[in-house]
Every structure is written in C-alpha cells, then in structure tokens.
Design goal:
This protein has helices spanning 34-46, 50-69, 79-91, 103-122, 137-140, 144-148, 179-189, 203-212, 218-222, 261-282, 305-318, 346-362, 368-376, 381-394, 403-407, and strands at 4-9, 22-27, 31-32, 242-248, 254-260, 322-328, 335-341. By secondary structure, it is mostly helical. It has three domains: 4-148, no CATH class; 179-341, Orthogonal Bundle (hpI Integrase, Chain A), CATH 1.10.443; 346-407, no CATH class. Helix 8 (203-212) runs antiparallel to helix 10 (261-282) and helix 12 runs antiparallel to helix 13. Residues 172-403 form the Tyr recombinase domain.
Length: 412
C-alpha cells in the first residue's frame, strides 16, 4: 500500500502536545515525521493559535504528498519543484470543495512551505534553494488586513518571494450586504429579542447583530463574556445611545468598542433567558456569552466559529443569498452546479463599516474614517480607507443618519 502523509491531532500524553496540537505521520504505518512535526511545535511556541498550527500542518502534508507522488526527496527538492507544486495547486480542484483553488489559497499553501524550508535550513536539515532570504518574513506573511480584502493581496512596496507571488489585480474583494439582503438574512437568523415568541432562540440573530451593528470579527463576538453585561443599565427610551464594551481583538489585543443601547438590552434578554436555561441544562460554568442551544448534544458549552459559519451559511441559502458554482461531485466524478452562500460572517463587519460611513457623513462628520478605524481596531487609518474607500465611492446612495434606521429596524 502506498505511503501517504497525514495530519494527526496529538494526544495529551505526547511530549509535543506542550507546544503543538498537530503532527505529521506516514500512513498506514503511522510513523512520526520528526522534522516537520518539530517545526509545527516551533509554531506552537511562537503562536498560541490552534488554527495557525492546523493550517500549516495541512499545507505541509499537501506538499509532502506532492513530493511523494513526484518521487522527490523533500530534503533535496528545488525551487523548480516548488514552482511545479504551485502550478499543480492552481490547475487542480480541491478535494474538499470540488472547486478550483483561489490564488489566495495557493499563496498560503506555498508560503507555508517556504516558511518551513527556511526553518529547516536554519536547523541544517536542508541545503537547497527554497529560501526566503530574498524576502523577509513580513513580505512572505503579507499584512493580513490588506491581503484579506484585495483580489491580489499584492503589496507593491514590499519584496516577496516569486514563488509566493499572487496575481496582480486591482479592486476590492469586500462584499457588504445590501439593506434588502441584510433584512432577509436577519429574518432567517431568528427573531429579534424584543419580538421573540416564548421559548424561541434569539442567539443566532444576536450574533449577527453584533456583526453588522458593532463591526466585530467572529472571533471577537465569540470572546464576549456574559458577565460583561451584568451591571450595564440602559434607557429603553433612548436605544440609540451607546455603551463602551471591551473586546479581545486580533493578536490578543484588547480594545473598547461602542455598542448601541438596544443591542445591550437584547443581549441582556438573552443572558437572563435562553442562555441561563442552556447553561443550567448543561450544568456548565461557561463564561463565554454565546453558548450551544438546549437541543444540542452539549447545551451550555461555548460555540465555535465553524458552527457559526455553518448557521450563517444556511441562513443565507434560505434567504436566497447564494451563488451557483460548478463543483466536482466526489461520487460521480462529474462537475455539477451547487448553491453556496454568497456571504460569510465577516461580511457583516464590512456591512457595519459601509453603513456607518454613510450615517456619519449624513450627520455632518467630515472625518468618518477615524470612528470606523477605532471601532474596527485597525492600527492604521490607511488600512481602513484602502479597504472601504473604493466601495463607498461607488455606492453613495444612503441618506439616513442611523445604521439601525438604514436597515429599517424600529428604535425600541
């Protein structure tokens, strides 16, 4: 049987578990690939993010399997081999999605391999020409905010490895929801906390509200704690007044964001009602605000970003917010049309930024970007304008002064 490189989650008894949750093994004999696994342990020490270790582990497994299929010894591979790998990534479909990989995905896979080889060269495991000496680490790992929102991810003022080079296209990739689309989506996400029938769940709708009305990332929403709302007292007669709430942002940096009083009120309704019932049912001591529902296998436990994305995607499909794409059917091997969500949770953050810009301009604020920058947690004002300026210039037909009014929700 052919040997294949696989990613394996490490058990708590493994010495590697102190620094990494993932390692590479040769299947079916399940022998540890010591050098790549040591690199993953190094990543675990450098970054606490499990997602970083997992993504790097899978990227390396793809590369090692490519080398195996091409009969290449990874310790003697060359830059030409990596070019061939990059071409293979861009010209084949993903087994997971059945669709062609995007340029961004290929960039990340190849970048992960270059990072590993640079580490391997420093440990004298590798003496070939796959290096990033021409491009410092900051160039290989391009600025996340800019890379995440551009078609090319290109940073023309920085040198990058030609292997990791992405296509140089202009234009923005943000996809804010239109007002009509947002209204349909919110309806499918669940009832408003003030209007919810007895016993119904308001959690999913509330998660969406923290995205479009505050501009939080999904990780920031899920890092909120229930005790943050215990002592806040809002005035129902002025639901557009704002409170200041502390959130844990990217890079484990704390920042304060402005939250409308109506959203604080809705969150407190959830905490005192649905959340309290779920935690009691599961007999947990969960601190995080958003927990699994009463009908889940583990009620009262904190929920994951993947689960939220699945809920959001299903709501998009029900709301008619989807696109038809050609995907490979793994059973028949034939290409077929499938409906996939046209938006992801992060698009709610973009929606907040666009709505807030137009609301601030309508109110006479000559510098709306500064407020949006502070709310979104961008370290640079240029990052904010680079992401959104082109879009708002092309879509300037908003007139209302409140983003809640823009969406057509009552002020109660």
């Amino acid at each position: 049987m052919d040997t294949e490189v696989v990613v394996h989650r490490i058990g708590s008894n493994s010495p590697l578990c102190r620094t990494s949750k993932f390692a590479l093994f040769r299947w079916p004999e399940m022998t540890l690939m010591e050098q790549p696994s040591s690199y993953l342990a190094h990543l675990g020490r450098r970054s606490p993010s499990i997602a970083t270790s997992r993504n790097s582990a899978y990227a390396l497994s793809y590369w090692f399997n490519f080398c195996r299929a091409a009969d290449i010894d990874w310790q003697h591979s060359s830059i030409d081999d990596l070019y061939d790998y990059k071409t293979a990534l861009e010209t084949t479909v993903s087994q997971k999605t059945g669709a062609r990989r995007s340029a961004g995905t290929s960039y990340q896979y190849v970048g992960a391999v270059v990072e590993f080889y640079d580490f391997a060269a420093g440990r004298c495991w590798y003496a070939g020409d796959i290096r990033k000496s021409e491009a410092p680490q900051r160039a290989i790992r391009a600025d996340h905010d800019k890379l995440a929102h551009t078609k090319s991810g290109a940073l023309p003022t920085r040198k990058r490895s030609p292997i990791a080079q992405k296509r140089n296209r202009s234009g923005t990739m943000i996809k804010p929801l239109s007002i009509g689309s947002l209204q349909r989506l919110l309806s499918e996400m669940g009832p408003d906390a003030n209007d919810a029938p007895a016993g119904s769940s308001v959690r999913n709708r509330l998660i969406a509200d923290w995205g479009w009305a505050v501009g939080l990332r999904i990780s920031e929403i899920l890092s909120l704690r229930a005790d943050q709302f215990s002592d806040l007292v809002g005035d129902p007669s002025v639901p557009w007044v704002h409170f200041s709430i502390e959130v844990l942002g990217k890079g484990n940096k704390l920042r304060r964001v402005s939250v409308p009083s109506w959203l604080i009120e809705h969150t407190q309704i959830y905490v005192r009602g649905e959340r309290q019932r779920c935690v009691a049912l599961g007999r947990t001591s969960e601190e995080r605000l958003f927990v699994s529902t009463a009908d889940s296998k583990s009620p009262g436990q904190g929920i994951t970003p993947r689960r939220v994305e699945a809920i959001f995607g299903a709501a998009c499909l029900r709301a008619g917010l989807f696109v038809n794409v050609r995907r490979l059917d793994p059973e028949t091997g034939l290409m077929c049309l499938r409906q996939v969500p046209a938006h992801c949770v992060h698009d709610l953050r973009h929606t907040y930024a666009v709505l807030t810009y137009h609301a601030e301009v309508t109110q006479g604020n000559s510098e709306p970007w500064k407020k949006i920058q502070a709310q979104l947690g961008h370290s640079s004002l240029k990052t904010t304008t680079d992401i959104y300026l082109e879009y708002v210039n092309a879509h300037n037909d908003f007139r209302n002064a409140s983003i809640r009014d823009l969406v057509g929700l009552s002020r109660r």
